[in-house]
Amino acid sequence: MKVLVIGGDGYCGWATALHLANKGYEVGIVDNLIRRYWDSELGVDTLTPIASIQKRIAHWQDLTGKKIDLFIGDITKYDFLQDAFAKFEPSAVVHFGEQRSAPFSMIDREHAVLTQVNNVVGTLNILYAIKEHCPECHLVKLGTMGEYGTPNIDIEEGYITIEHNGRKDTLPYPKQPGSFYHVSKCQDSLNIHFACRVWGLRATDLNQGVVYGVLTEETGMDELLINRLDYDGVFGTALNRFCIQAAIGHPLTVYGKGGQTRGFLDIRDTVRCIEIAIANPAEQGKLRVFNQFTEMFSVLDLAHMVQKAGQTMGIKVEIDHLDNPRVELEEHYFNAKNTNLLDLGLQPHFLSDALLDSLLNFAVKYRDRIDLTQILPKVSWRR
Amino acid sequence: MKVLVIGGDGYCGWATALHLANKGYEVGIVDNLIRRYWDSELGVDTLTPIASIQKRIAHWQDLTGKKIDLFIGDITKYDFLQDAFAKFEPSAVVHFGEQRSAPFSMIDREHAVLTQVNNVVGTLNILYAIKEHCPECHLVKLGTMGEYGTPNIDIEEGYITIEHNGRKDTLPYPKQPGSFYHVSKCQDSLNIHFACRVWGLRATDLNQGVVYGVLTEETGMDELLINRLDYDGVFGTALNRFCIQAAIGHPLTVYGKGGQTRGFLDIRDTVRCIEIAIANPAEQGKLRVFNQFTEMFSVLDLAHMVQKAGQTMGIKVEIDHLDNPRVELEEHYFNAKNTNLLDLGLQPHFLSDALLDSLLNFAVKYRDRIDLTQILPKVSWRR
Question: Quick one: signal sequence residues (chains A, B) (predicted)?
């Protein structure tokens, strides 16, 4: 079975491409490497030194004998995308190929427009490419739990049954995205849902939580296969950032009260969730939605866990409450369902001291690469 | 009070600009005239011969002594838009400046991408321009009833209170748009809602039904002020198209069974609704939603009404059921609320024989301009 991983040079994409290759799928990577360019533009860098995509893939083949096809180009250019589809003939497409940072989308108007045009046009092009080249192909699309916002009722998986004035229907779950990036994911979901209804395509929208961790079975095989790990104020996500801050004695940067509760998952579960989604394709004509996270924590919970794990390693960890650069509720109800993937066999890796130790150890190992000037948030939602 | 009408050269925009000017508002029109270009591209034309925007405005000034400012340019170019805001300093912005045809968005991939990029970027730019130049300014944005689709429960005005597992919240009404154009309007709503929450802007989303009619008090003053009237398969909406078909003895083109029920309103109510929205601005920080229609009809109801009106004028009208080029339910529940505008004083013009007569008479008057080759739908949702 042939799987095209779009955005296969990124944090989740690279880990997924190798995992699927390891499990016997024929894998092709599509990527325009723009994320590496954005790093340069912002003057930030992954904590872990990552090899070029060409070297990564060559080394993977040396180690395992498994070949990964590479298509370097921009999916917002339809000719390029069509060509990759025609050459590779995928039976599933995993789409990570989007601008994925909320702060990046909030830098200014240009970055908001870039994020939405890039993400919406890329996804539209993929939908047309599937329709025209392989209508049976299963699209596995990365969404985000942030599409839902923080409603005062339980968050279901994509749809909710509503009783209203004596009648009943099951409708798309209402969305309250919290940044222009999160809006772009909702915009995509609308297009994918429409394409499934009208053209009979099949798709799975994975509303993923915040991913943490650096190693998977495959990326841990060799230093040349190492995955990126971001800690900066634009691309760094909460737990990874906290561990790296702890390792260098920087206070953990909790935004506001830290009562913001979100869904989280280990990157080893990310790759497994994608594998499960591909192995159990959505029905023709349906957009299926899975909430892809394994545990819920508040940001302050996370900070306390990192503090505790630091103590056992002899690292003193302080917690700073910064003015929240985002506009979000800091105390709210949050109860999201995540049973669909568990029902299909996901065995979660729960966040444990062991994982925190390994993340902290990674951070200590590469501490010389940390740029202190990149740790604090520089993008304000209100600006 | 200064009102900037974006898209002021179009069907609803032109009628609104004149109406507001007549009511004493200082009016500026922003338009890139792309709709006239799309007509050329598709080889279609308005039934009524419309003057150039420059001649229209000059003639309006000659007749009434009222000046309308004109800014010709593309709102997806931020420099141009900013410049118009800085020069005009609006206290309200009415945004009609979008690609507004569902079939146009379904022609092919290029037209889908054009529609969404044009509409989403234009609206994003307006939000940034308001935030940067006039944060108190009230944005009145044209949405569409088609954002809701045809759910099996009552359609509320933008938000719905949901009780779920013993808890309750009022959330954005779930959307099931029926074309890439309708998706673009939902995409806009997400951005506007976000900008109101995060930046404290004020906006009104007018989810408008299908507009019919050609004359308003102002566009009827003189032939040089006449409004456009579209009857072609791409830009022509149901009732206008039916009247024009009736006038030349062409069978009415009902898609499928014709059981599709929608909200409708007279263009004289469109202009009055905009006036009401401007006179009663939304609260700072709020996206208010009004469903802007006055009556609900099925497409077949409309056809029968045109048939009856034709009879009284001695015109024999036949009804054809075409294969439905769209993907939509032809029998469904549809009950949408529309009390917000009525509560603010809207006095609806209901669809009457008199109105149908006047539309039919218009069609008869300009029958020599009708291009028979443009009447049938050429765009299929499934293609």
Answer: none
Distance CA(A316)–CA(A248), nearest Å, equals 10
Active site amino acids of B = 144, 181, 185
Q: Is B259 on the interface with A (CB under 8 A)?
A: no
The reply to whether B173 touches chain A by the CB within 8 Å rule is yes
CATH number reported for the structural domain that contains residue B139 in this entry: 3.40.50.720
Place of tokens 């002020």: B225
Q: What is the pTM of this model?
A: 0.98
pLDDT tier at B366, thresholds 50, 70, 90: very high
In a domain? residue B381: no
* DSSP state at residue B326: S
Residue A365, in any domain of the structure: yes
Looking at the structure of chain B, the number of domains it has is: 1
B167 belongs to a structural domain: yes
The total number of residues shown for chain B amounts to 383
Q: What is the pLDDT of residue A7?
A: 98
Q: Is-contact B207 B193, C-beta < 8 A?
A: no
The answer to whether position A128 is within a domain reads yes
Q: Does the pLDDT value for residue B8 go beyond 90? A: yes
Enclosing domain of residue B28:
2-374
d(CA A264, CA A352): 13
Q: How many CB atoms lie within 10 A of CB A169?
A: 17
Cross-chain CB nearest to B168 (options A153, A190, A194): A153
Hey, are the CB atoms on B191 and A183 less than 8 Å from each other? yes
Q: What is the ipTM score, two decimals?
A: 0.97
